[in-house]
Design a protein that fits this description.
By secondary structure, the protein is α/β, with parallel strands linked by helices.
Length: 467
């Protein structure tokens, strides 16, 4: 059923979006020559679509081969973004960026221990709840008390231990209970039940967030997939890197045997087979309810995951395997069908897309840009304030462009302690840090100076001044 927007809502949304998507020197921030911002034109939505956002946990980019149902639904009918990223490769900051469309330096959830800093009135669910039926199932935010309801969700089942797969304790609409069995199945049942209930009031659209544990450690595989075959993998040049003298200390000291990386990878892939079943069931439910053409679907991970590249396992580092994620979006009639796009996109773009699709007004400036339309950013800021353990990466910030990545690491007083620069066109596995390779003749001095200045500006950007 198509749900018409009121003229007032549409006009207000367009005015707000026009302000958010300004370009040039918005916010009084001057940008160095040669780096331009592109204004994102707004569309005038005529219907308010349903919104389905699926967020997996720690899913690397190269994992979609074991998810054929997901690919058939979203890639065949929508867009695969092959250059999708998260702006902070940690669970809680990334999810806060998805909910708000803002960088961690703006929403203030800067690591997995500071979820209490999130202003929930700035979230998508806060904006949608007056007109949408809202629900979340699975992971919410690290450190969130299981005795508290997630704000602005009408229905919910949020879990206590985010690294658990079987017999997990949930808060289900205010009742704490241990749910027996494999939790991906429980999330599927809860989500489909919500869709059935929401469609009983077909005139009101719905907003549904589904956030499974998979493929987060400990990678517990559903019994029926324990011996399922996975695509073979013998590592890549990043895994086989021998000379790490050009890398920062935490990388030089890291080591992970290929066999261990292969074991972790296989387990992650098998947990994703259950998520693929969930996606297939959600697809069938949406079709059976007659809502397939009226639903905006976004699928992504909250961060990537290192499988031994540069000796590292996990996330929270600036390397591509940590910040790049699988990401798909489907909205019939508004997004292309069956397309793969190479433009740089990010988790902060999801909220902007939802606001544009609904005509609603964000409470705060959006740092992201809508996926609707053909705008291309020339760079993306990524940032990390604190890793989980002190022996992991120090704080860092980086700029990713179409052809390069520039990284700065910071000390206790905010001083730059180490820098990396990679020519991604010639060195996609980031094997040669051109600033520490012992050959100053190949340093792109002018480009690095420009990137360093731009990085300084972008680390405090807000709204239209963000890349």
């Amino acid at each position: 059923m198509q749900r018409r927007l009121t003229a007032g809502a549409t006009a207000a949304g367009l005015i707000a979006l026009a302000a958010v998507y300004g370009s040039g020197t918005a916010g009084g921030v001057e940008h160095p020559p040669g780096i331009q911002l592109t204004a994102q034109p707004t569309i005038q939505p005529t219907v308010q679509p349903n919104i389905l956002i699926v967020v997996t946990d720690d899913q690397p980019l190269a994992t979609m081969s074991v998810m054929p149902q997901t690919r058939r639904w979203l890639k065949a009918g929508g867009v695969r973004y092959k250059n999708a990223h998260v702006t902070t490769p940690q669970c809680c900051p990334s999810r806060s960026s998805i909910f708000t469309g803002r960088y961690a330096h703006n929403h203030k959830v800067r690591d997995n221990h500071t979820s209490g800093r999130l202003d929930h009135s700035t979230t998508l669910q806060a904006a949608l709840t007056p007109t949408y039926q809202t629900a979340i199932y699975g992971k919410f935010l690290n450190g969130w008390s299981l005795d508290k309801a997630p704000p602005y969700f009408d229905e919910y089942a949020i879990q206590a231990k985010y690294a658990s797969y079987n017999d997990v304790e949930f808060n289900v609409n205010g009742v704490r209970q241990v749910v027996p069995g494999y939790n991906t199945h429980f999330l599927t049942e809860q989500a489909v039940g919500f869709l059935d209930r929401a469609e009983a009031n077909d005139a009101q659209p719905w907003y549904l967030v589904v956030a499974p544990t998979a493929p987060h450690p400990p990678f517990t595989v559903e019994e029926k997939y324990e011996d399922a075959p996975v695509p073979p993998w013998d590592g890549d040049p990043g895994v086989r890197e021998e000379d790490k003298s050009d890398k920062p200390g935490y990388v030089r000291n890291a080591s992970l045997p290929l066999a261990k990386a292969q074991t972790k990878r296989a387990a992650q892939l098998r947990t994703l087979m259950s998520v693929d079943d969930m996606m297939g069931r959600l697809h069938r439910a949406v079709v059976e309810l007659g809502e397939d053409s009226d639903t905006l679907v976004v699928f992504l991970s909250d961060n990537g995951f290192m499988w031994g590249q540069h000796g590292l396992l996990g996330k929270a580092v600036p390397y591509l395997e940590s910040i790049r994620v699988p990401m798909y979006a489907r909205w019939p009639g508004h997004l292309p069908q069956g397309r793969t796009q190479g433009r740089i996109v990010a988790n902060v773009d999801i909220a902007a897309t939802v606001f544009e699709s609904t005509g609603l007004v964000p409470a705060t400036p959006l740092d992201g840009r809508s996926l609707v339309g053909a705008d291309k950013r020339d760079r993306l800021l990524t940032e990390l304030y604190r890793a989980r353990r002190s022996r992991e990466s120090p704080p860092w910030a980086a700029l990713r462009t179409a052809t390069a990545q520039y990284v700065e690491y910071y000390g206790a007083e905010g001083e730059v302690t180490f820098r990396e620069y990679y020519d991604l066109a010639a060195d996609p596995y980031q094997l040669v840090n051109m600033l520490e390779d012992g050959d100053p003749s190949n340093d792109p001095i002018e480009e690095i100076a420009q990137l360093a200045l731009q990085l300084q500006l972008d680390r405090t950007c807000s709204g239209a001044s963000c890349p």
